[in-house]
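so my prof wants the structure for this chain in the tokens format not the other one, which i didnt know existed until like an hour ago. anyway here's the sequence
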Amino acid sequence: MSVTLTESAAQRVLSYLRSRGHGMGLRIAVKSTGCSGYAYVVNYADAINETDHVFESRGVSVIVDAQSLELVDGTQVDFKKDGLNESFQFNNPRVKNTCGCGESFSV
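here's what i got, hopefully its the right format
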């Protein structure tokens, strides 16, 4: 089981954590929502809980809660910047469908 970062995503997380001055890594979770069922939730982690799974990728800790892990296992997280728009993008091999707007997915 794992979740990995591209070089671009790792550099974005490291840069943000440095400017923020604290944090343990990138927290990735999934919540039930949207027309397809699930949506990603991305935050910077200030703590690691007992039930969290921690993966190291390109020098960054990627923290995933136990409930979300089965939905994101094998995912590669990328960071894209296009003009003023920037976002984390997910290459999740478990996704079967995404909604029209791309905000939610099903497995």
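also thought this was worth mentioning. The beta strands are 4-5, 25-33, 37-45, 53-57, 60-64, 76-82, 85-91, 97-98, 105-106.
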